[in-house]
Amino acid sequence: MKKPRKALIPAAGLGTRFLPITQSIPKEMLPLVDRPILLYIIEEAIDAGLEDIIIIQGRNKEEIINFFDSNYELEDRLEKSGKLQELKILQKIRNKANIISIRQQEAKGLGHAVHMGKPVIGDEAFCVLLGDELMIGSPNPTKELVDHYEQHQKPVVSLMEVPEDQVHLYGIAEFQERLDDLTVKIERMVEKPEPGEVRSNLALPGRYLFENDIFELIENTKPGRNGEVQLTDAMQALCKKTDLYGRSIQCTRHDTGNKLGYLKACVYVALEHPEVGDEFRAFLKNLEV
Ligand code: G1P
Question: From the alpha carbon of 203, which atom of ligand 1 is closest?
Answer without folding.
Answer: 10
